From TrEMBL, chain A:
GO terms under cellular component: membrane
Pfam families in alphabetical order: Na_H_Exchanger
Family that this chain belongs to: Belongs to the monovalent cation:proton antiporter 2 (CPA2) transporter (TC 2.A.37) family.
Domain (Cation/H+ exchanger transmembrane) ranges: 15-396
Membrane topology summary: Multi-pass membrane protein
Source species of the chain: Natronosalvus rutilus
Protein name from the UniProt record: Cation:proton antiporter
Automatic annotation (TrEMBL), chain B:
Superkingdom per UniProt: Archaea
Molecular function GO labels: monoatomic cation transmembrane transporter activity
Family annotation (PROSITE patterns): RCK_C (PS51202)
Pfam families membership: KhtT_N, TrkA_C
GO terms under biological process: potassium ion transport
RCK C-terminal domain residues: 76-160
Cross-referenced InterPro entries: AAE_transporter (IPR050144), KhtT (IPR026278), KhtT-like_N (IPR058776), RCK_C (IPR006037), RCK_C_sf (IPR036721)
Name of the protein: Potassium transporter TrkA
């Protein structure tokens, strides 16, 4: 494939992504599905197949192939990889072990309920749909992990952030994020380690060793991380942070360990320093730019024709995993002693899936032809993209129309729990 | 006065302040520095956003609330101008003042100073428009109306060395 990207291609990428973002904000939707769709439309599978001269009857524009952006191009692919690194870095940065331990009781219970119900349902679903254990593990991750980015933004936009439902929502997301860091390490080792069990065990060993090394670094290296960013200049701060983060993530990838996991731990190491606030402020736009490239790249790599083949799978997954999140979220709200209405809101909020499901999908593609057969890898990828498109829009809509949904469901829930408590 | 503090992972911090009438004031401090102020009518109600402020503005408002620019003071002498010439003033009656124990008539307030005593605040109660038979007690707060010179004359009467 062409590995060359011209400046005008990068310009087109940003322009199309910007227009997609504008559209999304106009109709109060999450930007993520729009970036993906924009990528799909600009990619080789849609724009690349249009014979524009024939369509327009004039040779003003060349054949679509010449215009289409290419997901294989080095710049876009690396940009997407940086997007993953930044997303996970921020996760680690926000992750505060002491805080988690302080409220471990509630977060632990609500998070475990969420894990057992959704990951369990995902395992069953994946095994039924793909008849392979590794595929089941991937599907379980895809349907389990809610979207921190979309949910947090919606909470702020809707003003729920000041309500009691914010605590179980954000708490459960913290639990999911921690789980997904470990999960990514194991799954990427399994997928990239080839199909051989011995080899997989070996790569899991390397992955666990690398994570242990990072954990030791996090535990004992705080002072060093603190000193590493001691500067009054924003320029130096950003450069040093990127130098440390991207170097460690890249080294991890070179060793065959997930770069996302490495980035998570680097974020965790910085979370214990005084620089958290500066890093968040200075790197947030950087993260958003590269995350947008990541979603765009996901779209570029997606052949919409493949959706036809997996439409049934997506429909089944949506039908199964929407109620599971509603249920686990509701139970999580009850664990936090919220009333029926607010517990239902937790469920509605948790429905949204997004960026992490896509990161798992990109791992599946990386394993194509090795641990996974080509066809299963392609199917899982298309399934994940379609699933995220549906669930991100559905979840955002659920939150926007929560009032109407509550009006229908809350009286029933109250009647039911009233019946339960009176029969006690 | 209870203030609940909770972490909002990925967002910032939330402070919930119980106000006196059961309402709640909620301050969400974002990691970006943005502050959002919400109001809840009661504990279980939905929060309504009242306004949001940038970091700089929030600090400014904070210092105003803290009283850095203007601290309400209950000084011995608060003066309010009714017109350019007439003042309404509050005086604390010093226990050592010659007025303590005298009635308004005996002290010949109007004749000696020119001010009128319009109210006397004694502990929790307020004696509005006290008559000439009203007796001054130590630590009374006297509310008087008069021009600047009259008020100054009166001030020397209520002080410890008043009238000597």
């Amino acid at each position: 494939m062409a590995a060359e990207t011209h400046l005008v291609d990068v310009g087109a990428l940003f322009a199309v992504a910007a227009i997609a973002g504008l559209l999304a904000s106009r109709i109060d939707q999450s930007v993520i599905p729009f970036y993906i769709i924009a990528g799909m439309l600009s990619g080789p599978y849609v724009l690349g197949t249009l014979d524009l001269p024939a369509l327009l009857g004039t040779g003003v524009l060349p054949h679509g192939e010449a215009l289409a952006l290419d997901g294989q191009s080095e710049f876009i692919h690396l940009g997407a990889e940086l997007g993953i690194v930044f997303l996970l870095f921020f996760l680690g940065l926000e992750f505060n072990l002491e805080r988690l331990l302080a409220s471990r009781h509630d977060i632990g219970r609500a998070g475990s309920v969420d894990l057992v119900i959704n990951f369990g349902a995902g395992l069953l679903l994946g095994f039924v749909l793909f008849e392979s254990l590794l595929a089941a593990l991937l599907v379980a991750g895809i349907v389990y992990i809610s979207s921190s980015a979309i949910i947090t933004k919606s909470l702020i936009d809707l003003g729920w952030i000041a309500n009691d439902e914010a605590n179980p929502l954000l708490g459960t997301l913290v639990y999911e994020d921690l789980f997904i860091a470990i999960y990514l390490a194991v799954v990427s080792a399994l997928v990239l380690g080839g199909g051989d069990v011995g080899e997989a065990l070996g790569s899991i060993g390397i992955a666990i060793g690398f994570i242990l090394a990072l954990l030791i670094l996090v535990q004992f290296g705080t002072a060093w991380f603190q000193r590493s960013l001691e500067t009054d200049s924003n320029e130096f701060l950003v450069l040093r942070a990127l130098g440390i983060l991207v170097l460690i993530a890249g080294a991890a990838l070179a060793l065959g360990v997930s770069e996302a996991v490495a980035a998570f731990f680097v974020g965790m190491a910085f979370s214990a320093t005084d620089h958290v606030h500066d890093l968040e402020q200075l790197l947030e736009p950087v993260r958003d730019v590269f995350a947008a490239i990541f979603f765009f790249w996901i779209g570029l790599e997606t052949n919409p024709q493949l959706f036809a083949g997996v439409a049934g799978l997506i429909a089944v997954a949506v039908i199964v995993t929407t109620p599971t999140k509603l249920l686990s979220g509701y139970l999580g709200g009850r664990i936090y002693d919220l009333d029926e209405r607010r517990s239902l809101r937790v469920g509605l909020g948790m429905t949204t899936r997004g960026e992490f499901s896509l990161i798992i999908a990109s791992i599946a593609v990386a394993g194509a032809g090795g641990a996974l057969s080509d066809s299963i890898a392609t199917d899982i990828y298309a399934f994940a993209v379609g699933y995220v498109l549906v669930m991100s829009i559905l979840g955002t809509t659920f939150m926007q129309y929560a009032d109407r949904i509550e009006a229908v469901l809350v009286p029933r829930l109250e009647a039911r729990s009233g019946a339960v408590s009176s029969s006690d | 006065m209870t203030i609940y503090e909770s972490d909002l992972p990925g967002v910032g911090k939330k402070y919930e302040v119980e106000l006196e009438d059961g309402e709640r004031l909620i301050i969400v401090t974002h990691n970006t520095g943005k502050r959002e102020i919400y109001k809840k009518d009661e504990e279980g109600a939905d929060s309504e956003k009242v306004f949001e402020m940038s970091d700089r503005l929030a600090r400014k408002v904070g210092t105003i609330l803290e009283g850095a620019y203007f601290q309400p003071v209950q000084s011995d002498r608060v003066e309010t101008m009714l017109t350019g010439e007439t003042f309404i003033e509050w005086y604390n009656l010093d226990p050592a003042s010659v007025l303590v124990g005298q009635t308004i008539a005996e002290a010949q307030i109007r004749e000696r100073t020119g001010v009128s005593i319009v109210a006397i605040q004694r502990g929790e109660e307020v004696l509005a428009a006290p008559g000439p038979e009203t007796t001054f007690a130590a630590d009374d707060t006297l509310v008087v109306v008069g021009d600047r010179d009259d008020c100054r004359d009166f001030e020397s009467l209520v002080g410890g060395d008043g009238g000597r």
